[in-house]
Amino acid sequence: MQLTPVHSAGGFTGAMMPLVGFVIIAPDLMFDSTRFVRLHDQIMRKVMRAVLYLHHEKTLPKHFQAGADKKYGYQKRREKYLQIKMNSVRHNVDLVRKGKTRASMLNRVPPVQISGKGSHILTGRMRYRFPFPVSHDAKDPRYVTMAKMGKEIGSWTIDEQKEAVEKFAELYTADLKFELASRPRWRKEMEKLGGS
């Protein structure tokens, strides 16, 4: 699954989480409890934020390295453009010319926008912006437009998606156990049913 960031004036809003689904096993009395549902939502939001920050720190830099074009499926650049770029900056790393975009996106942690409810559908986005005015995209499909570059920056490999899902589950489980430690009645009910 490849995520498609939404292009906007001056940048793009990266939809940086793969679609994630979880089965939470808990006693009915807990799901009937507004206190538990509220706790569940709080943990989901906290974990979503943490996984997005991890993505920014560990995965996003890989998009600006040599070889990222093959790893993430970037659109092939035209030979004429590659030659001009090589002559002017002495490299052909996609998404990098002088490094202004890379530095702007990696050196500043963007705000995280979370919407929805953990008990239904929760979405998380990190809002990145190109550090220069963005003109209208060319209609010629041979050209790599700003919208296409935004899509490239926001793409995930299958392995990165799996790692994010595993990290999400790991952090959620750890946080829930920590919270239940101060709620012995709920913890006992979960232990009876073989939960955490």
Task: Write a brief structural summary.
With 196 residues, the protein is an alpha+beta fold. It is built from eight helices and four strands; from the N terminus they run ββαααααββααα.
How would you describe this structure to a colleague?
With 196 residues, the protein is of the alpha+beta class. It has one domain. 48% of the residues lie in helices and 10% in strands. The protein has eight helices and four strands, in the order ββαααααββααα. Strands 1-2-4-3 form a four-stranded antiparallel beta sheet. Helix 2 crosses helix 7. The longest helix has 26 residues. It starts with 5 loop residues before the first strand and ends with a helix.
Helices, strands, pairings?
Layout: E1 6-8, E2 11-14, H1 28-31, H2 34-59, H3 68-72, H4 79-89, H5 100-107, E3 112-116, E4 122-129, H6 146-153, H7 158-180, H8 184-192
Helix pairs in contact: 2-7
Low-confidence stretches: 1-10
Fraction in beta strands:
5-15%
How much is the average pLDDT?
81
| Oligomeric state, counting identical vs distinct chains | single chain
Q: State the order of secondary-structure elements, H for helix, E for strand.
A: EEHHHHHEEHHH
- The DSSP helix count reads 8
Assign the structural class, choosing from mainly alpha, mainly beta, alpha/beta, alpha+beta, or little secondary structure: alpha+beta
Largest sheet: 4 strands, antiparallel
Radius of gyration, whole Å: 21 Å
What's the helical proportion of residues? 40-55%
**Gap between N and C termini:** 31 Å
How many domain units? 1
Tally the beta strands: 4
Shape: elongated
